[in-house]
Amino acid sequence: MKKLILFVILFAINLSAQKDIEHLFKGIDGCFIMYDFTNDKYFRYNEERCNTRILPASTFKVPNSMIFLEEGIIPDENYVIKWDSVDRGWDKWNMDHDLKSALKYSAVWYYQELAKRADREIYLKYLEQLNYGNKIIGEKIDYFWLDWSLRISAVEQIGFLKRFVKNDLPFSQRNIDIVKKIMIAEETDNYILRGKTGLGDLRDGIYTGWYVGYVETNENVFVFAMNMDASDYENITSQARINLTRTILKELNVL
């Protein structure tokens, strides 16, 4: 009986929490999942979608960066690749990049160039060790994270990010620390927010986007993953996804 009562209480708390952010997803097909390290608890909104695999898009830059560092494809975060003068439609992409700026501005071309210097066996090895989504590369070594060959769910993103936070990955501590450093989006006296966006190309009239990362407070760590669909690009820009996620985190008293 005690177990039943506890289950009912926890279920009610979870439903209440879902209602707390349900209004934030009004008119949006999306999901949100968060893991609270200190209390070993998950918070989920739209659980079915949280378990659905979709393309990782540029959120794959997080493991990809560590792969490039670990394999010696680049020596450190300061490795520069010169812009090839191809206009990619945004001034932040039409410039030289190192790993820091390429991750910050999600410069796909920089990562594609480095991916060509890797090989399929390297990627297959790490996708298996990371247990990353469906672990499928497809035909294009420099595009598989964008063409829906590789797919991962929000739940699986949380699993990867939990290991990232705990330094429980097949990479050296140096390389993990480098990526943690360049992922910092905001740092205050009360918390450090690390995050990475990702957006897929228009597919059947729909854009699919992510914002994943974690918040490190003085007492706790909260790992989060949000993804959503939109037919109108203006509703799914990087800033729109970041703003929605930040609003959720504030609603849950994380920020």
Low-confidence stretches: 1-16
- The number of distinct structural domains comes to 1
Separate helix tally: 9
| Count of DSSP strands | 6
CATH superfamily: DD-peptidase/beta-lactamase superfamily
Radius of gyration: 18 Å
CATH top level is Alpha Beta
- Estimate the mean pLDDT confidence: 94
CATH fold call:
Beta-lactamase
Distance between the termini: 37 Å
Q: Give the second-level CATH assignment, the architecture.
A: 3-Layer(aba) Sandwich
Descriptors for this entry?
disordered N terminus; alpha+beta; 6-stranded antiparallel sheet; 38% helix; 18% strand; PCN-bd_Tpept; 9 helices; 255 residues; signal; Beta-lactamase
Word description of this protein:
This protein is globular. It is of the alpha+beta class and 255 residues long. It has one domain (2-251): 3-Layer(aba) Sandwich (Beta-lactamase). The protein has helices at residues 2-22, 47-50, 61-70, 99-104, 108-115, 120-130, 154-165, 173-182, 238-251, and strands at residues 29-36, 41-45, 184-187, 191-199, 207-217, 221-230. The protein is built from nine helices and six strands, in the order αββαααααααββββα. It has a six-stranded antiparallel sheet with strand order 2-1-6-5-4-3, sandwiched between helices.
